[in-house]
Every structure is written in structure tokens, then in C-alpha cells.
Write a structure and sequence with these properties.
Helix content is 67%, strand content 9%. It is mostly helical. The chain folds into two domains: 8-213, Cation efflux protein transmembrane domain (Alpha-lytic protease prodomain-like); 220-312, Cation efflux protein, cytoplasmic domain (Alpha-Beta Plaits, 2-Layer Sandwich). Helix 8 links the parallel strand 2 (251-260) and strand 3.
Length: 313
């Protein structure tokens, strides 16, 4: 089933993912060429990192397109988890890149030698400098769109690009230090330090993606806000219970039971349920609300709002 072609948020997400793919393709070619030419393991490692950015951006591009598809017979709750899955894959790529950097840097330190040509440091600085500037601009724009659209796929991709920025800055700083100190092994030491920073970012993204995939409830502040909205309408019902929440990409799912006095008309109860749903969607625009209405089973003569045992509990 086709995606919603006129959805501005989807169009914006697809555009920034496409820009990231094009940009990183150019940067990979640039850094690989200069990396092999100068013999810098740090620049080559940075190029490999950018290569994974292409894969990550491609995954994000696919994910935002797929998640925009409306529910179908096979995916009745929509396709939002494609974004969560994409975030997990990208986070895994980040960790693999970090391990590769650690391996390359450690190998150079163990050998105690560097293949870097000190006469070509300026060329290397140009390559990583261009990479850092380009990815800073794109990742900033991508993160802004990711926050606005609550897209974990784009957020993961933005963090992936930012780790590339950190790598490039680290390599750039290393090349400057090498220029002034003449210690070529700094090339490997800087790459090792940046890899550790990348690992921390990757682990955080893995946790977030798994939380969505495993149907972890919404953050406590959001759950509390849902409770506040329900309580604000307490004069219209006896009690509510069974509140359950989860996320699927940018979509939120909220489910709860509402108990009414046994003499309340169905149409009245339904009107209140609609009102609750509308208020929740005002607070959380991309949410899906399921309200289960049931009669109060308290067999007492004073089935009022203030004296109901279920309410006091």
C-alpha cells in the first residue's frame, strides 16, 4: 500500500535522508582517496565510518518511507516499528565501526609504527575538515526534523552522522598535533579515543530502539500526563484502571478501562470516551487510544463519585 504522498512530515524526512546519502557518498570517495594517498590509518578509518553512514542513511530512508504506510491486513497497528528496527540496525553499525577503529588503532600502537606520510598532513586536514563541516550541517538539520516528527530512525541516523563528526574532529586534532610534535603514533591514539566515545553513543541508541521493539511503556512523565487528563474528567465516570502504553516508531498507543455507574446510558459513556480520546490526541497528536467501557460492579445504594470504594482505592 503506498505511503501518504502529501504528508509534509514524511516528505521532509525522506528529503533529509536522501541528502545524507548523497553527501556521505562524496565524503567516502574523498577520504578513502586521501587516506590511502597519505597512509593515515585514522583517515581511512574515518572513511570506513562514513561508508557505514551511507548504509545507515539508506536504512533510515527506507524506514521513514515504510513507516508512513497506513495499516494493512498484515500490519493492523501500522508500520511504525520499521523505524525502531532501523534505529537498532544503525546503532549496531555504530558499534561495529567503533570496534573496527579500536582494532586498527590498537594494531598500529602494537606495531609501534605508523604509515602516515608527515609531508601530506595538510591534505589530510582538508579531507577531514570538509567532512566535519558537511556532517555537522546535515546532522543538525536531521536531528531537528527527527525531534519534530519523533522519528527514531532519523534520530539514529543523525547521531550516526554526529559520531562521524566526532571522528573527523579527533582525526583533525591528531593531524595538527602530529604536525607540531612529529609523533606519528598520535594518529592511532586519537582514533582509539574517538572510538570509545562512539561506543557510548551506540549503546544508548540500542537501548532506545529495543525499548520500542519490546513494547516498553511510555516515559513516566508521559504516563503521568495521561493520568492527569483522565483525572480531569473524573466527574463523568466512577473509576479507570488497566492503563497500558507503548510506542511504535513515532506512534503512541494508549489503552485503559473506564468504569461507569450502572445506570449511565451507553451514548453518554461513549461521548465521554470520545472526549477523553480527543484530549489525549491534543496532547499526543500521533497517538492511538483504545477505551474499554464497563459498568461499576459495586452493589451499593450510594454509587456516587465520592463514595465509591473503587474510587477511594
Amino acid at each position: 500500500m503506498p505511503s501518504r504522498p502529501y504528508d509534509p512530515a514524511t516528505r521532509e524526512k525522506k528529503q533529509i535522508a536522501g541528502v545524507a546519502i548523497a553527501s556521505n557518498t562524496f565524503l567516502v570517495i574523498l577520504k578513502l582517496t586521501i587516506g590511502f594517498f597519505t597512509g593515515s590509518v585514522a583517515i581511512i578509518s574515518d572513511a570506513v565510518h562514513s561508508a557505514t553512514d551511507i548504509i545507515a542513511s539508506s536504512i533510515a530512508y527506507f524506514a521513514v518511507r515504510k513507516s508512513a504506510h497506513p495499516p494493512d491486513d498484515q500490519h493492523t497497528f501500522g508500520h511504525g516499528k520499521f523505524e525502531s528496527l532501523s534505529g537498532l540496525i544503525e546503532a549496531t553499525l555504530i558499534l561495529l565501526v567503533a570496534l573496527f577503529l579500536i582494532y586498527e588503532a590498537s594494531t598500529a600502537l602494537i606495531r609501534g609504527e605508523s604509515t602516515l606520510d608527515p609531508d601530506l598532513l595538510g591534505l589530510g586536514m582538508v579531507a577531514v575538515g570538509v567532512s566535519a563541516i558537511a556532517n555537522t550541517i546535515i546532522s543538525h538539520r536531521m536531528m531537528k526534523i527527527a525531534k519534530k516528527t519523533e522519528s527514531i530512525a532519523l534520530e539514529s541516523d543523525a547521531w550516526h552522522l554526529r559520531t562521524d563528526v566526532y571522528t573527523s574532529i579527533g582525526v583533525f586534532a591528531g593531524l595538527i598535533l602530529i604536525h607540531f610534535t612529529g609523533i606519528l603514533l598520535l594518529d592511532a591514539i586519537i582514533a582509539l579515543g574517538v572510538a570509545l566515545v562512539i561506543i557510548r553513543t551506540g549503546i544508548g541508541l540500542v537501548r532506545r530502539s529495543l525499548a520500542d521493539l519490546l513494547d516498553t511503556r511510555l516515559p513516566e512523565e508521559e504516563v503521568e500526563r495521561i493520568r492527569e487528563i483522565l483525572i480531569a474528567h473524573c466527574t463523568g465516570y466512577v473509576n479507570f484502571h488497566g492503563l497500558r502504553t507503548r510506542r511504535s516508531g513515532p506512534e503512541r498507543f494508549i489503552e485503559f478501562h473506564v468504569m461507569f455507574k450502572s445506570d449511565v446510558l451507553l451514548c453518554t459513556a461513549h461521548d465521554l470516551a470520545d472526549h477523553l480520546e480527543a484530549d489525549l490526541k491534543t496532547e499526543f497528536p500521533r497517538c492511538h487510544v483504545t477505551v474499554h467501557m464497563e459498568p461499576c460492579h459495586e452493589a451499593c445504594d450510594e454509587c456516587g463519585i465520592s463514595v465509591c470504594p473503587a474510587r477511594r482505592e
